[in-house]
Amino acid sequence: MATINDRLSAIETRLQKASGEITSLIASLRDALNNGGPTEEIVSRLETAAQQLDDIVPDAPPVDTEEPAPTDETETDEEENG
């Protein structure tokens, strides 16, 4: 049975391979753009790969920067104290 370190090494190897493949796709896209070749398939493949990589780690929830609306209790306290 593989140890956690072995599994992590395998994951790292796969990610490095994927990085090389994505870089190659970008180079192919640039060549296709410069030579008038088909680009839609390459762009679609890159979009899919980028989304899959982005989905590995969930995005952090957005930080709410708006102040909460006052509650009835807050308004009542202010009216009584003000």
Plain-language structure description:
- The structure is a single chain.
- By secondary structure, the chain is an all-alpha fold.
- The chain has one domain (1-58).
- Helices cover 70% and strands 0% of the residues.
- The protein has 3 helices and no strands.
- The protein has helices at residues 4-35, 40-54, 72-81.
- Helix 1 (4-35) packs antiparallel against helix 2 (40-54).
- The protein starts with a helix and ends with a helix.
- The mean pLDDT is 81.
Write the layout of secondary structure elements.
Elements: H1 4-35, H2 40-54, H3 72-81
Number of helices: 3
Distance between the termini: 71 Å
Which consecutive residue ranges, at least 5 long each, have pLDDT under 50? Answer: none
Structural class estimated from helices and strands = mainly alpha
What's the mean pLDDT score?
81
How many structural units, i.e. domains?
Answer: 1
Instruction: Please give the share of residues in helix.
Output: 55-70%
Q: What's the Cα radius of gyration?
A: 25 Å
Brief description of this entry?
By secondary structure, the protein is an all-alpha fold. It has helices at residues 4-35, 40-54, 72-81.
Characteristic key phrases:
0% strand, 82 residues, 70% helix, mainly alpha, flat
